[in-house]
Amino acid sequence: MAANVRVGANVAQLVGWIEKLNTALLVLAVFIGVIGCAVIGVSALSASQSICTADLVSASQNNLPYCP
């Protein structure tokens, strides 16, 4: 009987650890996702800005009206 209680307590402790680990992994995954989206967004924004700048320069050199 005592052995069963001890195993049950160990299993409960193990489940508790797994839940903590899952929570930590979930937080880490969300954190990585947010950083990844921010990096992709910033790089896309800077890329589009540089493309717009290049278009503006070429348009002004060719004396064309620039419409972004």
* Overall pLDDT: 77
List the secondary-structure elements in sequence, H or E: H
Q: List low-confidence stretches.
A: none
Strand content: under 5%
Count of DSSP E strands? Answer: 0
Given the structure, what is the number of helices? Answer: 1
Helix content: over 70%
What is the count of distinct domains? Answer: 1
In whole angstroms, how far apart are the ends?
78 Å
The secondary-structure class comes to mainly alpha
Largest beta sheet, briefly?
none
General description of the model:
The protein has one domain (8-61). The chain has one helix spanning 2-61. 88% of the residues lie in helices and 0% in strands. The protein is mainly α and 68 residues long. The model has no long low-confidence stretch (mean pLDDT 77). The longest helix has 60 residues, at 2-61. Keywords: Membrane, Transmembrane, Transmembrane helix. The chain crosses the membrane at residues 24-45.
Please give a quick description of this structure.
The protein has 68 residues and is an all-alpha fold. The chain has one helix at 2-61.
Write the layout of secondary structure elements.
Blueprint: H1 2-61
Fill in the keyword field for this structure:
mainly alpha; transmembrane helix; membrane; transmembrane
